[in-house]
Amino acid sequence: MSNLEQEKDAAVQQVRCIECLAKVQVRKSAWEQTSVQWNDEALDLCRERPARSTGNLPRDQFVGCETLRAAVRDETVQGNLKLADQAAIS
To answer: How far apart are CA 58 and CA 42, in angstroms?
Structure first.
């Protein structure tokens, strides 16, 4: 694995939703940019996903969870979720 790949992997961190306990992988590249990787288990646990889903392919219609978004924000503000550049330095 290259140094760049190791730095990228180091920046990916797990965040848990405080409502449904779904766990997602989060990479915070900057204060203004956050990438969230959902897995099937997290999608199944999320309580907001079914409420927002429409159409024949609900997973394609799901744009995010407000409760999880708040958890990511809280983790970042508390210093528990590092920015990608900070994770590479640590």
So the answer is: 14
Q: Going by C-beta distance under 8 Å and a sequence separation of 6 or more, which residues neighbour residue 29?
A: 11, 35, 83, 84
pLDDT tier, 84 (very low <50, low <70, confident <90, very high otherwise): confident
With left for phi above 0 and alpha for psi between -120 and 50, is residue 6 left, alpha or beta? alpha
CB 24 within 8 A of CB 7: no
Can you tell me the distance from the alpha carbon of 84 to that of 80, in angstroms, rounded to the nearest whole number? 12
In this prediction, residue 88 carries a pLDDT of: 46
The whole-number average pLDDT for the span 27-43 is 90
Q: Tell me which residue of 61, 60, 20 sits closest to 42, measured CA to CA.
A: 20
Question: Max Cα separation, the chain?
Answer: 45
Q: pTM value?
A: 0.71
- Compute the distance between CA of residue 79 and CA of residue 41 in angstroms, rounded to an integer: 26
